[in-house]
Amino acid sequence: KAAVLDRAQGHCEWCGVDLALVKRYAIHHHIGIHTFRVADDAHTPDNLSVICQSCHAKHHGLGTMPPKEVMSHA
Fold first, then answer.
1. Selection from 10, 21, 13 nearest residue 51 by Cα
2. Digit-coded pLDDT (tens) for 26-45
């Protein structure tokens, strides 16, 4: 996750919003964990994006994100 957060440089990798301006963000898996034989294989930087709550909710067709998928700013 650290490499992906570093790559994003504080911005949503989909819409570009400054993550300091949003309440929450997510580390999104492009290919779902359930499709991998070994779950850890899903956590490679090329399979992850840092995205804002809005982009994540839109992608999944949700009004809000489930708490387990959300990371609050520290």
1. 13
2. 999 999 999 999 999 999 99
CA 20 to chain centre: 15
Long-range pairs for 67-70 at CB < 8 Å and ≥24 separation? Answer: 69/26, 70/24, 70/25, 70/26
Residues in the chain: 74
| CB-based contact 10:49 (threshold 8 Å) | no
Q: What is the pLDDT of residues 2-17, one digit of tens each?
A: 999 999 999 999 999 9
Q: Which residue has the tokens 């992906």?
A: 4
Burial code (b: 16+ CB inside 10 Å, e: under 16) for 3-29 equals: ebeeebeebbbbeebebeeeebbbbbb
| Listed residue (50, 52, 25, 30) closest to 41, CA to CA | 30
pTM for the model: 0.75
